[in-house]
Amino acid sequence: MARSVLAFLVVAVAAAACLSSAAATGELLPAAGTPLSFGDGYTQLFGDSNLALHGDGKRVHISLDERTGAGFASRGAYLHGFFSARIKLPADHTAGVVVAFYMSNGDVYERTHDELDFEFLGNVRGREWRVQTNVYGNGSTASGREERYGLWFDPTEDFHRYAILWSRHRIIFYIDETPIREVVRTESMGAQFPSKPMSLYATIWDGSSWATSGGRYKVDYKYAPYVAEFADLALRGCAVGPATACAPPPDDAIAMPPGQRSAMEAFRARYLTYGYCYDRLRYPTPLPECSVGAEAAEFLPSGDARATLRRRGRRHRTRGGADSAV
Ligand SMILES: *[C@@H]1O[C@H](CO)[C@@H](O)[C@H](O)[C@H]1NC(C)=O
What we know:
Layout: H1 2-17, H2 19-25, H3 38-41, E1 42-46, E2 51-54, E3 59-64, E4 70-74, E5 77-88, E6 97-104, E7 115-121, E8 130-136, E9 147-149, E10 160-166, E11 170-175, E12 178-184, E13 199-206, E14 226-240, H4 258-271, E15 272-279, E16 302-304, H5 306-312, E17 315-317, E18 323-325
Antiparallel strand pairs: 1-4, 2-3, 3-14, 4-13, 5-10, 5-14, 6-7, 6-13, 7-8, 8-9, 9-15, 10-11, 11-12, 15-16, 17-18
Residues 112, 138-139, 190-191 line the site of 2-acetamido-2-deoxy-beta-D-glucopyranose.
């Protein structure tokens, strides 16, 4: 199983990488398995000394303290590709802390931006971090496409890889070798499927007002600094630049093998704690790409998984639709 997963990733990466056109234009893309060093591929966005490089610039620590959070972004923008990082999250009491690893073009397209997110929401001591993914296209911020998950491991103990595969017709989010979410472009989704070049971002910031139990638990700076560690940052896509022409990846080749699909389904059956496709309060008519089956019985009208409720007790809803369990 592990081997077929790897083979799939290699194929997907090669398909997404546009290596030949990149070479032809002199635009340097990393060979598979050779992550860019920070200085070559990224630039600090904010947080002055709260961003620190380690291991020859191959590992990046970003931290949050009472002065500031921190963040960085890729120097280039990419149209499709494969983007990943190994991330280790801060431990202990992390309520209110948000770590984000995402693609966006919000700085270029203010009203019609695209975005693909991994967001990690901290928690009170002894409660696990929660992960959410989101997809926005062409400024569709009114239609959140959030999903939230539990994890089968403690993300503060070790590095784990979080990856986004983005092609013309398909987006796949991965945690380690497991695909956790697939978004297939449907005609009705139209421009709400991200389709303009995006940059890669990583940030840590204070989400006290909403991240944990709708803002009930705020960041406690007694425990600062909160340090998120990033390693093996990988960008394999069509870099967009003045001299770069890159054909889109041959994306029909990137179909998920059956073994991967069943791994994804098993993950989702167990760890999906909220899905917008099940949220009938927010979307009385599910968004067009949702295909909801018998598994919908496992979810409340709020989109929250019933099993999660039983396991974790009270949940709190915020205005933005983000809620959390503590
Ligand atoms: C994207 O959104 C803008 C502004 O709402 C709209 O004018 C435009 O037609 C949209 N683009 C596509 C391809 O639908």
